[in-house]
Structure formats: C-alpha cells, structure tokens
C-alpha cells in the first residue's frame, strides 16, 4: 500500500515503521526523492494511505497516528538496499554505550557493518551496535 502510494506521488519509499513512542503507537512512512521531499509529497502519500487504513482488515491494530516524513539527511539504514545505496558514503554506527564510529561504509553483511576510518577498516558486529545512520557533517 505504501509502495503504491509513493509511486503515485512520484517519490520512493524508504522505510515503514510501527513503533510505540511514549504511550502511543506511530505508523511512519519514510519517503525520499532525489530533488528533496516537500510537504506536498508527504500530503499526497498520506491522503492516499489514510483511507485505506480505515478498512476492516486493519481493525486489530492498536490506536496509532499516521505520519509521512522525509527519510532525512541522517536517515536510518536498516534494509540491505539501504546499505547498498550508502556504500562509499559517511555513516555513523552507534553502540549501546552511547559511543559511535563515523566512517565510510564499506559493507554490511547479516547486520555486521564495516566502515573505513582513515586507513583502518573497522567491523562492528550486529550484536554490538545500536543502529547505523547516514552521517551529516554540520
């Protein structure tokens, strides 16, 4: 449903998440477009998806808020196609202790991420990192 809505709006689907934030659930559709994402793009996708979510087949979902958003400059990388797209780009690999490694993405395999920091290749195992996102230098 999200893929079709994105195609119809002329944007690409980056990811879909359904997460509990505080005491409420949020269904977020992340979209992308080479020229950038505008509020009108988010509105188009939201207006196409929203009525479909009122269908009886979704009645078992807990109450939630639908959000359509740009994937953003520091977008989360979670799918194999995200990592393929980001190869050669600067990424930040966070760990559960609050530290992070910033380097050029070399590869990802089964959640293990290899980045190049200077001349050194560093592999961070899936079990030791809390996620990978595109790094944006301010």
In short:
This protein is an alpha+beta fold. It has helices spanning 2-9, 39-52, 80-86; strands at residues 12-21, 24-32, 64-70, 76-77, 90-94, 100-109, 112-117, 120-124, 131-134.
Describe the structure.
This protein is α+β, with helices and mostly antiparallel strands and 138 residues long. The protein has two domains: 2-70, 2-Layer Sandwich (GMP Synthetase, Chain A, domain 3), CATH 3.30.300.70; 76-134, Roll (SH3 type barrels). It is 21% helix and 42% strand. The chain has helices spanning 2-9, 39-52, 80-86; strands at residues 12-21, 24-32, 64-70, 76-77, 90-94, 100-109, 112-117, 120-124, 131-134. Strand 5 (90-94) and strand 6 form a beta hairpin. It is globular and about 55 Å long.
Instruction: List the secondary-structure elements in sequence, H or E.
Output: HEEHEEHEEEEE
* DSSP E strands, number: 9
Q: Which oligomeric form is depicted?
A: single chain
Reading off the top of the CATH hierarchy, the class of the largest domain is best stated as Alpha Beta
At the fourth CATH level, what is the homologous superfamily of the largest domain? RimP-like superfamily, N-terminal
CATH architecture of the largest domain: 2-Layer Sandwich
